[in-house]
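Hey,
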Amino acid sequence: MPLSRSTVTISLLSMAFAGMMYVPLSRLSPAYAAFAFSYLVLFNYSILAIALRLKKISSILLPIIFALSFVGAYLYTFLHIKISANLLFLALETTVGEANEALTPGVILSIFLALVLSIAIYFSIKGCEKPPKLKWPVILLLLLIPINVGLSKFSKHPVARQLRPALATKYAFPFCVIDSVANFSIRWVQYKTAPKPQSSALLESEYIAPQKNDPLTLIFVIGESARADHFQLNGYGRETTPRLSKEKNVITYGSIHSFAALTRISVPAMLTPATSKKPKITTNSFLDLFVKYGFSTAWISANSRMAYSSDMPTTRIMGNAQQTIFRNDFTTADYSGFRDAMMLPVIKKVLSTTHGNKVIVVHTRGSHFNYSTKYSDKYRKFTPDKYKNYTNLDTVINAYDNSIIATDGFLADVYDMVKKQNALVIYSSDHGESLGEEGIFMHGNDKRPEQRSVPFIIWYSDKYAELNPAYVTALKEQVGKKLSHDVLFPWTVNLGGIALKNTSLPVLIAN
């Protein structure tokens, strides 16, 4: 008796979803891999057979789920990037320029194939006359679900530890996609309905800097995708920070732990009182607090104003920036043609047109993928550095290291602008970057140590050291200690002459 069209469609889909688990299956012994693959096919078949009874809904949802799973499987197999709610947020908030740079030939091909196959699945489901009988799918589920429950209950058992990455529904396609979409939807609603952060000016504080001091210039530079171990200043074998290494008033704290492995999570935390133990953003950036004590404030960004016109996490915490200057406000350069050095004249203009105490936040492009587009020929020291995929790791690292050299040049140029003033420049990156460790690239995976290892560098002028010797001493005493993004907010306001009262934050100097 020939198989029905519905049986063939469901069987092929079941095997396709099981095949998407190639990476975890390949890590198992042949016997375990055969068992796991068979389990996935049967489990998928049971679910899909039941789902097909709602033909109109299935014909729409299954092609979409397949497309997301197919692209997700490509990212997981070749880049070790797992689909998650954070990845979906990243896709939603990514600008066109960022997307264009991330779309390698492999990613484009996977999207094209996903669309073609999804269309075929849609018509195949529409052509199914009737779904398989319910009896066997239900019996299969009753037999298979206890195995998954058992693996979860005894997750520390050696067998379970091997099989769970391939079988557990939280990891397996298409269920990980469904879980991620559901999680994303819940978090999106929570974010949209959450109250806006309150002003940091409401925090208990006191301005303790001597009134006779020269006006203070404090510049906070937000790096992008920079990992601490690729800074020569931190012991890296390549000359990636030639200018910073010669600066006498530079303090480096080596590697500190980032708040997260994504910009949308890390940047708000870097500039607010949020900590790793209390991650909820309830207060906006320190700019409001500085405004309270008479500082002029500015936000200069390598991102376009259009990208940040919507209700995004960074926009929410920007606070009372008296000047907001975005990329398209001062240059016609598109995303791939922009270099951080293009912000230097803007910084110089803000410095010359504002008087008294001032705080400037500079959000750079840094070392964001595609690395080879983040620096000019002036910083093209390591070659070859042009690539279209990750097959030549040395070329990728050459480009990445050149982007660090560009950051070195940018910071040194900023130092030179304020060297004769009472000034301070604070730099840290939002997150790190994977560069081929265990086949993993880019960022977004909080469990990867190289994606959470970021530089933290503070430079101070001679005049600042003269007027604030206690602060400089306190900064030097922290070298070698285990630090994280948690210190950025309290240290920044402390170094600006503001003492926080009744706080549990890791302040630099207690009131």
